[in-house]
Amino acid sequence: MEKHLIIFTDSGDTIIDEGTEVRDERGIVVHAELIPGAGETLRALCDAGYRIAMVADGEEQSFTNVYNENGLGDCFRTRTISEIVGIQKPSERMFQDAMDQNGLAEADKCRIIMVGNNLRKDIAGANRFGITSVLLDWSPRYDMVPRCGEERPDYTIHEPAGLLELAERLERRLKSGPLSSERK
Ligand SMILES: [Mg+2]
């Protein structure tokens, strides 16, 4: 049975380890490895009935290559990719595209989380759009200190597996009302 909570997720340094990326001469990613635990987590969330939508900046072919290689393409109900949308996060058009592709309306925003590693793109973008933000602070390549209130995540996890526990907690909480923030 499908869960109430809906998961929007970034890809680079949220699921894929950007440190392992190999690009061709056109800049397309032709090889990349998963962050330890990310594949198992994505598969477990998918099997548990969570709807998962990719919201990621990059080229369509890069994502196709990487998720073919790592065998997780079927976990994503939809893919919102900046190359196709024509603008990158934190543009609200990226988040709106995921909403539209999933048939979601304004009233559904209270049950959507956006998971990502980038404060400026994923976290500020989600906060401004009015959905719940979840920072995965695993990446050594990005600044994890918010520069302003807009960049402050509602929730922070330190490794992919933390999303499983958080999703279950939020799913239980949704049964009694909208998600409230742990943001200070
Ligand atoms: Mg990223």
Assembly type: single chain
Name the CATH superfamily assignment: HAD superfamily/HAD-like
The biggest beta sheet reads: 6 strands, parallel
- How many β-strand stretches? 8
> What is the typical, i.e. mean, pLDDT?
95
Number of domains: 1
Describe this protein with a few key phrases.
184 residues, 6 helices, two-stranded antiparallel sheet, binds magnesium ion, 32% helix, alpha/beta
Secondary structure elements and pairings:
Elements: E1 6-9, E2 16-23, E3 29-34, H1 38-47, E4 51-56, H2 60-70, E5 78-81, H3 82-85, H4 92-101, E6 112-116, H5 119-129, E7 132-136, E8 155-157, H6 162-174
Parallel strand pairs: 1-4, 1-6, 4-5, 6-7, 7-8
Antiparallel strand pairs: 2-3
This protein binds magnesium ion.
What does this structure look like?
- The protein is an alpha/beta fold.
- It has a single domain, classed as HAD superfamily/HAD-like (Rossmann fold), CATH 3.40.50.1000.
- It is built from 6 helices and 8 strands.
- It has a 6-stranded parallel beta sheet with strand order 5-4-1-6-7-8, sandwiched between helices.
- Helix 2 links the parallel strand 4 and strand 5.
- The longest helix is centred in the last third of the chain and has 13 residues.
- The protein is globular, with a radius of gyration of 15 Å.
- The protein binds magnesium ion.
